[in-house]
Specification:
Elements (H helix, E strand, L loop, with lengths): L5 H9 L11 H11 L3 E4 L7 E6 L7 E7 L20 E2 L2 E3 L7 H17 L5 E7 L10 H10 L6 E4 L11 E3 L1 E2 L1 E10 L3 E2 L9 H14 L13 E8 L7 E2 L2 E10 L5 H19 L2 E10 L2 E2 L4 H14 L4 E3 L7 H4 L5 E3 L13 E2 L1 H20 L3
Parallel strand pairs: 3-6, 3-7, 7-18, 8-17
Antiparallel strand pairs: 1-2, 2-6, 4-5, 5-19, 9-16, 10-14, 10-15, 11-13, 12-14
């Protein structure tokens, strides 16, 4: 049978201007292809965010292998900085160019092509489920979360899932993600007492207190890492006072920190640590602090086991490389799926994602399709 061409499908998706949260025609394109291939498709839009659920096979089957990805892309920035039309899907110098070429229309095209060919050529005893969102690059509140809510309400479930995000840092096949660090951002405000710099004893300088607190936070060893995670880190991302006068001690200063943390912590415990550290500086200086954490994501781990081993075998068989099992990098929608079923991430090399002149090697897309196809075959051959 003729293989579904994932490179051509990637190009079609790139031509859809789906800058988050615009659908841009991408999900309609996929729904049409999947419906034609015998998948039952449902749009699961919520709060204006476009999402797609597609299933081949019986509803509620205990062996329901899933893929997850997104068709929304980040803005292109200045079009004049691009050497190509960012939505032109131009093939040049052996590469396919355009916004979303790497992150992650190629990954979606690869798993859609693999799912269509697998269910057509070797219909499994089970179900194949594809979940595609238009809200991963944005707030991600009404994307994959909305799909999973809809699935729960309608008796749908995945027994295992691969997220098709770019995971390989250097070579195709060199890394699988089996978890992700958590992320906590906190805005910290120091409230002092304004005064004249010539009379500092009549004021309470919030900057002195803020600098003391930031120094302690930046130099504190949060932990030394765990079996599958690197040590947690804290980065100071801003300190703002807005004081144009050199002879005025300001009344207020704000700072923002971001913590990337491992499975020894959760966001609540780290917010508590920040508050305790701020309170200690208050007691030393008299400057009051307010610590305002923003909703982030918790660390998670899919322990090495059947799913990661199956995907690793498929990667090695198709690339000749034994992938590392990693929890590095930022966040992804795997953090949402992990409460639904075991989940790992595997995709192509992410070297140019979010960059001007984003591009992808078509050979990597073809290889990715083969990895996904082999993972599907092995999963159902082994009885799930």
């Amino acid at each position: 049978m003729t293989e579904t061409d994932p490179v051509a499908l990637t190009a079609e998706l790139i031509r859809c201007p789906s800058v988050t949260p615009s659908e841009g025609g991408a999900l309609e394109l996929l729904a049409g292809r999947l419906t034609q291939a015998g998948f039952e498709c449902h749009r699961v839009d919520r709060e204006g965010v476009p999402n797609l659920f597609a299933r081949w096979g019986p509803k509620g089957h205990p062996r329901s292998f899933g893929f997850n990805g997104h068709t929304d892309v980040v803005p292109v920035g200045s079009r004049s900085a691009w050497s190509v039309d960012p939505f032109g899907a131009e093939m040049r110098d052996g590469m396919l160019w355009g916004r979303g070429a790497t992150d992650m229309k190629s990954g979606v095209a690869a798993f859609v092509a693999a799912a269509i060919d697998f269910t057509r050529d070797t219909p499994p005893d089970g179900a194949v489920i594809l979940t595609v969102t238009g809200d991963e690059e944005g707030p991600a509140e009404h994307g994959t979360a909305a799909i999973l809510d809809w699935m729960a309400q309608n008796g749908e479930a995945m027994s295992a899932c691969i997220v098709g995000e770019p995971t390989c840092p250097e070579r195709m096949g060199d890394m699988i993600k089996i978890g992700r660090r958590g992320s906590l951002t906190a805005r910290i405000t120091a409230e002092g007492l304004q005064g004249h710099t010539a009379y500092p004893h009549r004021a309470r300088n919030p900057l002195h207190a803020m600098v003391r607190l930031m120094d302690r936070l930046a130099h504190h060893e949060i932990d030394t890492g765990t079996a599958h995670f690197d040590p947690s880190t804290l980065a100071i991302t801003s300190i703002d006072t807005g004081n144009p006068a050199s002879n005025v001690i300001p009344a207020r200063s704000t700072a923002t920190v971001n913590i990337r943390f491992n499975d020894l912590h959760d966001a609540e415990s780290l917010a508590g640590w920040l508050r305790d550290a701020a309170q200690a500086v208050t007691e030393e200086t008299g400057v009051r602090f307010e610590v305002a954490p923003r909703p982030g994501s918790e660390a998670f781990l899919t322990p090495p086991g059947a799913l990661s081993e199956a995907v690793s075998r498929a990667v090695t068989a198709e690339t000749g490389i034994e992938p590392a099992l990693s929890t590095s990098g930022g966040t992804s929608d795997a953090r949402i799926i992990k409460d639904h079923c075991p989940v790992v991430e595997f995709g192509l090399v992410g070297e140019t994602m979010h960059q001007v002149d984003e591009r992808v090697d078509p050979d990597q897309i073809a290889t990715l399709r083969r990895v996904y196809l082999r993972a599907l075959r092995d999963y159902f051959a082994d009885g799930g």
